[in-house]
Amino acid sequence: RRSSSTVRTESCPCLLGIVLFCLIFFAFRRGVHHCTPSFISFHYVFLLVFVLILVHAGGGHINHSIFWKNLCSPKEGGGVLEDGALKNEINATFGSLENLQTKLNTASAGVQGSGWGWLGFDPTSKSLKIATCANQDPLQATTGLVPLFGIDVWEHAYYLQYKNVRPDYLKAIWGVVNWKDVEARFLKAQA
Q1: Alpha-carbon distance 183 to 85, whole Å?
Q2: pLDDT, tens digit, for every residue of 143-189?
Q3: What angle do helix axes 166-173 and 97-109 make, rounded to 10 degrees?
Q4: Is 1 a member of any domain?
Q5: How far apart are CA 180 and CA 81, in angstroms?
Q6: By C-alpha distance, which of 128, 108, 92 is closest to 10?
Q7: Residue 171 neighbours by CB under 8 Å, 6+ apart
Q8: Segments forming the whole domain that contains residue 25
Q9: Angle at 113 between CA 109 and CA 114, to 5 degrees
Q10: Sorting pLDDT into bands at 50, 70 and 90, what band is 31?
């Protein structure tokens, strides 16, 4: 069995946001070189607010785009992990699918407030990892892991059905995992 680790990113800033901020910052800096100080200050504040909004909305879009494709009804094969490269890697890394579920559920339940639990692929070590991200921070931008399967642990994802009992939601979500999508992401990440 390979060792697995959990990556926590609650205090890790979104790298995508930093890159976008730097690009826009230097474009503004160059363009307002001959302007008054108050004009420049206003634009820098505007720029910072814009980037923060963009990071939040962009991260939410990225995470939810993956999340919805990661799910399907049991009638369409949801919850069934078939034999293949992903199942072999899960067994090699975590010992079994049940062990993966326990570890990812534990990590996801531990997210304080809003966030995400993830099964990701580490391109450096070529291994599966469990990670969490606070708020809407996208996995790859904050950890370098390629997202394979994400669990939305914001209350809006489960409150109507599970109230504030996040562990019940985490147990139930495994019955609707679209493992074909997760495996396709895994194979693409390995390539």
Answers
A1: 8
A2: 999 999 999 998 878 878 888 889 999 999 999 999 999 999 999 99
A3: 150
A4: no
A5: 8
A6: 108
A7: 105
A8: 10-191
A9: 90
A10: low
List CB contacts of 37: < 8 A, sequence separation 6 or more: none
Higher pLDDT: 3 or 147? It is 147
Q: How many domains does the chain have?
A: 1
Question: Does the residue 3 lie in any domain?
Answer: no
Phi, psi of 149 (to 5 degrees): -140, 125
Query: Which residue type, as a one-letter code, is found at position 17?
Result: G
Q: Answer left, alpha or beta for residue 73, where phi above 0 means left and psi between -120 and 50 means alpha.
A: beta
Closest CA to 141 of 49, 73, 40, 61: 61
Which residues, other chains included, contact 51 with Cβ-Cβ below 8 Å and sequence gap of 6+?
17, 20, 21, 24
Q: Tell me the C-alpha distance between 188 and 191, whole Å.
A: 5
Residue 63: which CATH number?
Answer: 3.55.40.20
